[in-house]
């Protein structure tokens, strides 16, 4: 039986001289692996639609293991992202996370939509680091490691929040912050942004400008939290760090 879905190419591996094994993140079926026979031949009809980070419509047999790709109609190659190493590094990380999740976990229409909206926004020139912050915060419940950012994780107070405790899994108010000497200090703006990132609708993301200090605070919270609980240890994430330090 042939299956049809829109999807995004999130990983490719060459197979032999002319074939390409492609991991598609599809709207209908989540993540699937397909063999694209002859896709490495320049004149192949599968060539353009099976390049890394391409959005398109795909026709395939799912199969039990690796499926077979029959048709690939590319609709967007995300050219702006690919033209610059910085958005490209962030976009590679965004899809690498999906590549590392189990197939079952990726079969989620919200998650597909988030990935697609982020790539579109990044391709439209929006700040790749901010988009990645939002993605990482929204991903936490799906990874089963949701953090409390709405009120103090210790006493439940919704105001005067002044730090984030990785150990306790959320923000702490100015009274409770003494409970974790390793808490990461946050300005009230950084707390507000963490909240906003958690609840924002991806279809409504406008331009968000962050000061350097705010960026650094949010980044240390997210990185420390991911390092402690996500189990993801991705080369693509380390590559972002290297680029930022250039
Ligand atoms: Zn408190």
UniProtKB/TrEMBL annotation:
HAMAP family: RecO. GO terms for cellular component: bacterial nucleoid. It comes from Pullulanibacillus pueri. Belongs to the RecO family. Residues 1-78 form the DNA replication/recombination mediator RecO N-terminal domain. One of its GO terms (biological process) is DNA recombination. The keyword Disulfide bond does not apply. The lineage of its organism: Bacteria, Bacillati, Bacillota, Bacilli, Bacillales. Keywords: DNA damage, DNA recombination, DNA repair. This is DNA repair protein RecO. It comes from the Bacteria. The gene is recO.
């Amino acid at each position: 039986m042939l299956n049809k879905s829109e999807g995004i190419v999130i990983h490719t591996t060459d197979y032999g001289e002319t074939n390409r094994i492609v991991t598609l993140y599809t709207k209908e079926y989540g993540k699937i692996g397909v063999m694209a026979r002859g896709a490495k031949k320049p004149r192949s009809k599968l060539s353009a639609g099976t390049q890394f980070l391409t959005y398109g419509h795909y026709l395939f047999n799912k199969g039990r293991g690796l499926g077979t790709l029959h048709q690939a109609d590319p609709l967007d190659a995300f050219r702006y992202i690919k033209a610059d190493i910085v958005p490209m590094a962030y976009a590679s990380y965004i899809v690498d996370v999906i590549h590392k999740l189990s197939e079952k976990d990726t079969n989620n229409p919200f998650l597909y939509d988030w990935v697609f909206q982020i790539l579109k926004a990044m391709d439209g020139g929006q700040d790749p680091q901010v988009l990645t912050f939002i993605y990482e915060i929204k991903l936490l419940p799906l990874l089963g490691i949701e953090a409390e950012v709405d009120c103090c994780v210790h006493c439940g107070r919704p105001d005067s929040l002044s730090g984030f405790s990785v150990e306790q899994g959320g923000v702490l108010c100015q009274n409770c912050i003494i409970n974790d000497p390793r808490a990461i200090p946050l300005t009230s703006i950084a707390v507000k942004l963490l909240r906003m990132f958690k609840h924002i609708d991806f279809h409504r993301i406008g331009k968000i400008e962050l000061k350097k200090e705010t960026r650094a605070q949010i980044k240390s919270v997210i990185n420390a939290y991911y390092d402690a609980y996500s189990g993801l240890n991705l080369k693509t994430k380390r590559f972002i760090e290297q680029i930022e330090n250039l």
